[in-house]
Fold this protein.
Amino acid sequence: MFNILTLNNISVAGLLRLPREGYEVASEISHPDAILLRSFNMHNMEIPDTIKAIGRAGAGVNNIPVAQLTTRGVPVFNAPGANANAVKELVLAGMLLAARNIPQAWRFATGLRGSDEEIHKAVESGKKQFVGFELPGRTLGVIGLGAIGVQVANAARALGMAVIGYDPTITVRRAWQLASEVKQALSVDDLLSRSDFVSFHVPLTDSTRNMVNLDRINLMKKGAVLLNFSRNGIVDDEAAVAALNDCRLHAYVCDFPSNLLKDHPRVITLPHLGASTNEAEDNCAIMVAEQVKAYLEDGNVTNAVNFPEINLPRNAGHRIAVVNSNVPNMVGQISSDLGKAGINIIDMLNRSRDQIAVTLLDVDREPDQKLIGDMGAIDGVLSVRYLGPADK
């Protein structure tokens, strides 16, 4: 029986992937084996020693002390791409809202007073101040071509827009998914100088903080539109507002309100709605619950931000999962302990990523607690778990 602590409300669709006969799930629970959360800030939390995995039902993990958990040998799972369609739709909505001046026109319409005849006259005389432009033929620049960025780029192409993208770390999988008509930008500066709209889909790191500042805004076309549904801090908000005031930018659309932004007439700011759909919340919860379940039961790792991906099918024998520092001779020492105990390895897989390595071993008989203890005492080993027989 595994104990799962929830720090936020997690979609029932995800929790149903953790069957009651094997899992106890609650918002208050003793000695949890794993934690599921959404936006809860774990940085000031005392994380129990019993924790074996963390599951974030979303993409960003800024609210989780990943480095600390890595040193403890605890994987942090997330759900990249589970909310991609929700964010894509919001980006498209943002482009349309900005291009057609819809928020400003809506405010004008709701402020009309008088008889219906007087309102109709005011509409006809006032609508010319909200004349916008259409998307076909305009150029969208997409910075970050992961699951979300690729969907945004492809959808914009379907709307008749030209699309350029920049992502020096794009994966082969995402490249295959990207429409062939999407052109490659040589750099962020190159993309900004060629785009009518720019949408960001990158994590917030030291290298992406204030990625768009005043100098880079000055490279952009006059009347361009910035869209940030990625992370607060990617765009220098003060620089964006200054450019709006000087009429260098047409609009700034973002998901992160502040006192500086919320009342500006050329800013469309939403209350962090990027993944706020029922479907996205279900998808994120399902994905992360299945990943945590696979790790707890079989040691397999998918979509962990700090662990290597590893997947060893369970066909026979007894499974042992070892997490260790990525240093030489770890597998040799682990195998030596098994040999001393007279246990034969049926199958084995070892993968590493940065400072962490994971070894999954299927052996011919159940290890005793002494062997598990001996393996755990090897210098550099962070955790050893016996996961039971293949036919459990």
